[in-house]
């Protein structure tokens, strides 16, 4: 994951899964036990008692041995519930190694963002890159460069390959031609080195059904001062003042507006202290007024460089960028 918060997030997801699994497990266990007891009791009445009576009758010469053999064969019906009990126990045991691994993941220390070196960036240079997928050219001749704090807008129509271009920048995929250089070093397809430079602002950010704080920090430990600074820069101070950091945002952020969700996404990127923010049609789901407000937040922050890809944007918003590059030609 871009912000290296796999462990807190995985822990959260696993915790949820575990709770669900535990509930299911105890339900299954109870169900299994009850049905086993019922079958056993039923067998006692339908088999053991007839068997005992049959044996007595045979000893008394009232029934033949054949009848008793038949009764003994039916004893499989009695064995089944017994084996079922052992099956149940085995099933419970077999999940144990899995839960041991889960425990290990949960006991991982959460990453302190202070421990991670922040990348310093002097220049990003994209030199004549092309990208092919399944022998089909997605785009070629892409050239631009960006310096710290600069704001670049890349315009291209839907399906042109804008998202693909951003995936190339973070090193998730490799260009088929050209170089992506950061500080003069070619980082084509080098996720390990490249991704630390970038924050990513999605059109539809992923929101966890938890509180505001978790959604912003993604489980990382941060100081109050760091958090307050980021809240102010992302324009979230008012929301936090009104609702509190432990405000439950609801499933898919249903208790938040689209603009607030976008601000959370920006706060995440700022908290990760990445020097370049990639905005992938970050405001295309918002109305004109909200889109402008989000752009003001994003583009007036001198601490970060911004590369935004978009297919539609107002003239007023365009005017806020240092460079506009038309790619879709
Ligand atoms: N996972 C994928 N598998 C196959 N084709 C894809 C995939 N993702 C994108 N494409 C194709 O690559 C091209 C560029 O996609 P994309 O980068 O998402 O465009 P944009 O972001 O400009 O709308 C499109 O033609 C799309 O159909
Ligand atoms: Mg896209």
UniProtKB/TrEMBL annotation:
Residues 124-326 form the ABC transporter domain. Residues 15-94 form the ABC transmembrane type-1 domain. Coiled coil: none annotated. It is found in: Cell membrane. One of its GO terms (cellular component) is plasma membrane. It comes from the Bacteria. It is a multi-pass membrane protein. SUPFAM superfamilies: ABC transporter transmembrane region, P-loop containing nucleoside triphosphate hydrolases. SMART domains: AAA (SM00382). It holds the Pfam family ABC_tran. Keywords: ATP-binding, Membrane, Nucleotide-binding, Transmembrane, Transmembrane helix. GO terms for molecular function: ABC-type transporter activity; ATP binding; ATP hydrolysis activity; ATPase-coupled lipid transmembrane transporter activity. The chain crosses the membrane at residues 33-59. This is ABC transporter ATPase and permease components. It comes from Lactobacillus amylovorus.
């Amino acid at each position: 994951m871009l912000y290296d918060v796999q462990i807190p997030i995985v822990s959260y997801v696993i915790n949820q899964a575990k709770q669900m699994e535990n509930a299911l497990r105890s339900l299954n266990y109870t169900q299994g036990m009850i049905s086993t007891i019922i079958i056993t009791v039923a067998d006692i009445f339908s088999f053991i008692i007839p068997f005992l009576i049959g044996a007595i009758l045979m000893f008394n010469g009232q029934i033949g041995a054949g009848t008793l053999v038949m009764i003994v064969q039916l004893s499989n019906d009695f064995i089944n519930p017994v084996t079922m009990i052992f099956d149940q126990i085995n099933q419970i045991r077999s999940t144990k190694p899995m839960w041991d691994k889960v425990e290990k993941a949960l006991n991982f220390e959460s990453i302190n963002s202070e421990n991670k070196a922040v990348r310093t960036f002097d220049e990003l240079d994209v030199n004549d890159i092309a990208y092919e997928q399944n022998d089909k050219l997605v785009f070629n001749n892409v050239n631009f460069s960006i310096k710290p704090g600069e704001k670049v807008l890349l315009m291209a129509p839907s399906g042109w390959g804008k998202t693909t271009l951003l995936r190339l920048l973070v090193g998730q995929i490799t260009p088929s031609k050209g170089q992506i250089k950061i500080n003069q070093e070619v980082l084509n397809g080098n996720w390990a080195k490249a991704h630390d430079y970038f924050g990513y602002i999605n059109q539809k950010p992923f929101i966890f059904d938890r509180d505001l704080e978790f959604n912003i920090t993604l489980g990382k430990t941060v100081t109050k001062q760091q958090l307050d600074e980021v809240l102010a820069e992302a324009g979230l101070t008012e929301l936090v003042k009104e609702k509190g950091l432990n405000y439950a945002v609801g499933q898919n952020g249903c208790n938040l507006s689209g603009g607030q969700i976008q601000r959370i996404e920006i706060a995440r990127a700022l908290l990760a202290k990445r020097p370049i923010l990639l905005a992938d049609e970050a405001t295309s789901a918002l109305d004109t007024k909200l889109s402008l407000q989000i752009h003001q937040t994003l583009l007036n922050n001198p601490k970060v460089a911004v590369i935004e890809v978009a297919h539609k944007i107002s003239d007023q918003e365009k005017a806020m960028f240092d460079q506009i590059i038309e790619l879709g030609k």
